[in-house]
Amino acid sequence: MEGKIRFCVSAGHTKEQLDYALLHIENIADMLGLRYSRKPRTTAKIEYYSDNEMELII
Q1: In angstroms, rounded to a whole number, what is the distance separating the alpha carbons of residues 51 and 53?
Q2: What's 56's DSSP letter?
Q3: SS3 at position 2
Q4: Quick check: 29 pLDDT over 80?
Q5: Reduced to 3 DSSP states, what percent helix, strand and coil does the chain have, rounded to the nearest 5?
Q6: Average predicted confidence (pLDDT) for the chain
Q7: 9: CB partners within 8 A, 6+ apart
Q8: Which of 9-13, 20-24, 53-57 has maximum average pLDDT?
Q9: Angstrom distance (rounded) from CA 11 to CA 13
Q10: I need a labelling partner for 43 at 20 to 30 A (CA). Which of 15, 19, 23, 51 fits?
């Protein structure tokens, strides 16, 4: 099987919506064997900051 799948992500999507979509995309990719890399993904939590918080850090 060969091909590409593209997705459009908008700033209007919430983190919860993106997490939901990615979870299902990953499951389908695994079922169909579509992943390019078999390298295990880290389970470390990603910390998200707002623009105001980033200004305080810099």
Answers
A1: 5
A2: H
A3: coil
A4: yes
A5: 45, 0, 55
A6: 76
A7: 18
A8: 20-24
A9: 5
A10: 51
Is 22 within 8 Å of 53 (Cβ atoms)?
no
Helix (H) / strand (E) containing 26: helix 15-32
Calpha distance 36→17 (Å, rounded): 24
> What is the structure's pLDDT at 38?
63
Determine the pLDDT at residue 20. Answer: 92
Say whether pLDDT at 46 is over 60. Answer: yes
CA–CA dist 10, 27 (Å, integer): 22
Largest CA distance in the chain: 48
Residue 56 has pLDDT above 80, yes or no: no
Instruction: Give the list of residues 6+ apart from residue 18 with CB closer than 8 angstroms, or none.
Output: 9
